[in-house]
Design a protein that fits this description.
The chain has about 110 residues and is mainly alpha-helical. The protein contains one helix and no strands.
């Protein structure tokens, strides 16, 4: 009878151990599933952020190109205006020199023939 009781105790302990191990296995599987889900989520977020970063960099480059183009346009306008001002200045200087010469000649004739 004693041998049967010992066998029953071993069977109960083995059953309890099997139940405990089955529960631990289920918990580990749940934990593993949660970790895998978190990994996939992190991977998706990472890809999304990389895409957004790439788009932001492309937009910044495009914006930078637009700014450079605008500045080149402003430069060209300024150079054109400067060129016009220089031409006007040269014409006015020539006119002033011509006017001075005319006055000098008139003064010379009026002094000599006057």
């Amino acid at each position: 009878m004693n041998l049967v009781k010992v066998a029953e105790d071993h069977a109960k302990k083995a059953s309890a151990d099997a139940s405990r191990l089955a529960e631990e296995l289920r918990q580990e599987q749940d934990h593993s599933t949660q970790i895998e889900k978190a990994r996939r989520t992190a991977e998706t977020v990472s890809k999304d952020l990389q895409t957004r970063l790439d788009e932001a960099e492309a937009a910044a480059m495009q914006g930078g190109r637009k700014i450079v183009q605008k500045m080149e346009q402003v430069r060209d306008i300024c150079l054109s205006r400067l060129s016009k001002k220089v031409k006007i200045h040269c014409k006015n200087r020539w006119k002033l020199t011509n006017f001075k010469l005319t006055i000098q000649i008139r003064c010379w004739f009026s002094v000599d023939h006057g």
